[in-house]
Amino acid sequence: MNTLQAPANQLDPKVKTAWRLEALVTLSIPLLIAIVFPAVASFTGIPSWIPMLALVVVLSLVVVSVGIAPNVRYRRWRWEVREEEIRLREGLIIVTQTVIPMVRVQHVDTAQGPIMRALGLTDVHVWTAASKHTIPALTDEHAADLRDRIATLARVTDDGGL
Amino acid sequence: MADSELRRTHPYTVLVRSARSLGQAVAGFFALTVVSMANQGSLAMIGFGAFVLVIGAITAGFSWLSWSYFYYGVVGNDLIINEGWLVKKHRSIPLARVQGVDIRAPLISRLMGLADVVVQTAGGGGGEAEARIGSIPLSDAEKLRAQLISGRAQPASAVPAAATTGAAAAASTSPDATAQAPFGPPTTGSDPLGHLSDFRGVLGGTQHADTEPVFEHAVPLPTLVLAAITSNGPVIALLATVGVAGQGFELLGGGSTDAATSLASRLALPALIAAGLMVFLFVGASAIVVTVARDFGFTIRRTGQRLETEAGLTERRMTSVPVRRIQAIVVESTPLRRMLKLSSVRLHTAGFGQSDQEQQSASSRSLIPLARSKDVRPLLHRLLPEAEQFPHSQSVPHRALRFYVLLPTVLASLLTLAVLGVPLALNAAAQLSEELMLATPLILAAGIFVVAGVVFWLRLTMYHAAGFGIDAQAIAVTYGSLGRYRARIARSRIQSLSIRQSPFQRRAGLVTLSVAAVSGSSQTVFRVRHMGIAEAVAIENWYSPDARV
After folding, report:
1. Can you give the pTM of this predicted structure?
2. Looking at the DSSP assignment, which residues form a beta bridge with residue A109?
3. What order do you get walking across the sheet with B89-94 strand by strand?
């Protein structure tokens, strides 16, 4: 077997909207600067190609992170909660596949930012002793169900952890 | 809980505590006094004396207050600590939650035959993760320690987190041997205060299955000195000195042909070299002294399911690590050690709260400071037979070579081009120095050649060092460039396993494997870069509980 088995489930399609909005919020300040910059530049005598270049760079960043990246990320993202393990696959260019055995799960929680709340989506965080893993953007009920399910599975198979 | 069961620490605690804080205050004030003494003479002496007296009285008063309000004791299944004269604090730590018990004896305490007991509890890196009881007589410290350790073994069946590991666990194959240890204060050993520098007199006397040393390994001083010299510390100091000196040379030799500057630089050169050498010797020597003082008299013992280390010149520390808390074991050969066929072994252990004093040992601790490489296996066999066997390691495929070498070399060349090229281009544009302009192609070519050569060579050694292997219990990851590092992580200690693949790697059928383990209260990741995908999938299946069933 020479290929990685992809986990079964995709995220909720609404996550693309959430990612787009998040990218817009992150880029809003650079965008604002890039728009105001030409006006400032014309007063201070900076050659006009510099603000134009900045605007092009920022705009292309917006196009990539709002227009293209969410689609690709969504297509890549896969997750699966099995009896004894959680599998995640994510990544835009570099794809990462992770296996987290249930016995290593320390606790599970759900989290929701303002954008996610508006869309009715919730992230599920799975904590091991080493780090945090996230299954993003599930519908609220689904996330709560999944959280409880992982918590139950993690407890049932507890072999002592550390 | 009756207060009568609680005890005070030794009254000398007041002396020890106030001496410690007074020492710090006086040291700070001394510098100021020396300066003023140069101006005012005896007046400053009197002022200094008065200061010492006042501060001494205040610290002694506060130390006495906090001592007189400090009570501790084991009541039932809890360690109780009551403290605080302004803000009262009552702590009750279930013995089952005790993760580790250290004994620390700073110099002043040791002179009085006292020691502190430091209790580590579950609960991450916060300050509350640690309770310090002290100072108490050494024999009491040993008794308390034995009590805390045996106490936490007793309710093991009731506490799932403290008991056995899974069926697949590599370490601690048998159930915790401490389970049959009797609860209660063990009989004291002979002559507790006779051993100022060694806890063993007390420890050996206890009739405790868990504290009976099975194997002991003491590291002699010359070996510790050699360990400090061959560690990476002095090498880093050397590189730093070379870097600083290089900057100095550049500053002096910066293309100026002015006769006076040239003369000055010629005079300054030997002085600069001497200064650099002095700085290096000083930095290197102090790094070595600090390391040797910390590890002085390093002794490690295997007692039942615990590893106990003891070390320190001024402050003597005894730490015990339950074997099942060991997350990863790394056999290290720094470049110097590799040349001398020497190795050291470090452990990554889990969950100990990071205290400010013990930062260096919080996440990874020394198991064997230094030994001949061929002696490592026999030593491990005696100290940690659970981790003695490293899985047989295989190297990454030949097609990974270009991934290791090509991109970093190209990037380094481009970076060199930018770093050297920009000033040279500016020089050419401004026509500052004709010689420099003429030499530009030569400088660029030589710079890129050297940098690319070094990077190429280092990455080539990394390619040769990289390896991995699995057996029934554990994974081995080998890495390094000039040095060699071999890590062994038991399968049951791997927190998560990731396989990463870039588009380039996909075309070549390669992936990067990341193995996450716990170190202290955070994570440490061991990586195998650019291994074949078939092997990575095999390791994933080996790790995946669902694929195994």
Report:
1. 0.75
2. A125
3. B7-8, B71-75, B78-83, B89-94
From the CA of B547, how many Å to the nearest CA of chain A? 10
Q: Which residue of A has its CA nearest to B167?
A: A159
A156 touches B at CB < 8 Å: no
Q: Burial, B353: exposed, middle or buried (Cβ in 10 Å; 0-12, 13-18, 19+)? A: buried
Q: CA–CA distance from A69 to each of A14, A16, A28, A87, A111 (Å)?
A: 14, 9, 17, 22, 23
Report the pLDDT averaged over residues B164-174. Answer: 35
Give the per-residue pLDDT at B400: 93
Query: What is the per-residue pLDDT across A97-109, written as a single tens digit (0 to 9) for each?
Result: 999 998 888 888 8
**Assigned token pair, B25:** 């205050």
Is the minimum CB–CB distance between A100 and chain B shorter than 8 Å? yes
Which amino acid, B45? M
pLDDT at B11: 85
pLDDT tens profile B257-276: 455 555 556 667 777 778 77
Kindly list the residues from chain B whose CB atom is less than 8 angstroms away from the CB atom of residue A2.
509, 533-534, 537
Residues B433 and B419: their CA atoms lie apart, in Å, by 18
ipTM reported for the complex, 2 dp: 0.85
